[in-house]
Design goal:
It contains 17 helices and no strands. The protein is mostly helical. The protein is 78% helix and 0% strand. It has helices at residues 2-20, 24-27, 33-59, 64-90, 95-112, 116-138, 146-159, 177-180, 184-195, 199-227, 235-247, 256-262, 267-288, 295-311, 313-334, 337-345, 348-360.
Amino acid sequence: MIQKALGFGFLFVIVPLCIGLLWNDSWKEEKNAVARIYLSGFLTQFAVFQLIAVPVMILLPRGMNDLVLLVSAVLILLSAAGIAVYFWRNKKRKALQSALREGILKIRKQLDGMSWGMRLYWLIAFAMIGFQMYMSYDRAMFDGDDSYYVVQSVLADQTGVLNRIRPYTGLSTALDVRHAFASLPLWEAYVARMTGIHAAIVAHTLLPLVLIPLTYLCYYLIGEKLFGQEHTGKLPFFMILVGVLQIWGNTSIYTNATFFLMRTRQGKSVMANLVLLALLWLLWEIMERYDQRKYGLFCLLVMTNIAAAMMTSMGAFLAAMFTGIAGFIAALRLKCPSLLVQLCVCCIPNVIYLGLLVVMG
């Protein structure tokens, strides 16, 4: 139980918040900076794992132990760097404590200025999110793709072999580049190692409790952009509407709501429901600040593109295409051709990843 609590706290609380502090300079003027820091840190954690997992997978067929050590060491170093950068930028010994105190005061001030009707709407929105988390936990659905992806996580965790065992037969096989380079199943195995929870339980039970609220955090940040600071009263209605569409969205097995709530653990679901939303929000932030030289946002965009490649092989292509189209439209609208060039540079990891797939496939 202690290992489970410590592992969960390390991977899903401490690491995202501390690594997210590396990007704090981009959000220091925002009202909900903590939400942006957490999401930024989580996306960076995904990207770091992908950057380490692919070369380890290629060079060390039995390298699960090495992967766990390398990823943990890098995450600890980046977390320490995030804290150090935050203190250095603020140049105060108790800067972090004061920031937390200010954040709590801001939340209290917002609650004090909120009408009871608005509080009720937010309560309904949170209740709907909690209902989805509970149903995903209590009524975990089996899917045919689990016989490949979840079994790969279990094999990596229990045997230490990285994508060299065929899940359907248990026999040795060559590296399946098309599926293996999307390393989310290995990340699930890494989470299993760190928490001491069986990899299948991590995939079916633990991840929905993390990924569902994280996705709604993206919706919240996008809602802020849609309605603006002067119309934040519309946000709870937006969140309720999104919740209704997700809960009653199982009109076929192909809708994003079906993937979101029933196949939360699969890379294609995380790509469509989380990474693309994060890309939309991040591109929005970049275009609002295109003249402020916020280079940290472009670095975070690179991390998000790498995270897209981690989810599915098509993720790298889709993320690059989405970034390019959005950049082209923004460059025309803002009359800033350099913005398109900068966004295209952020897609270089996607090109390298796709080239690696072609060469090794």
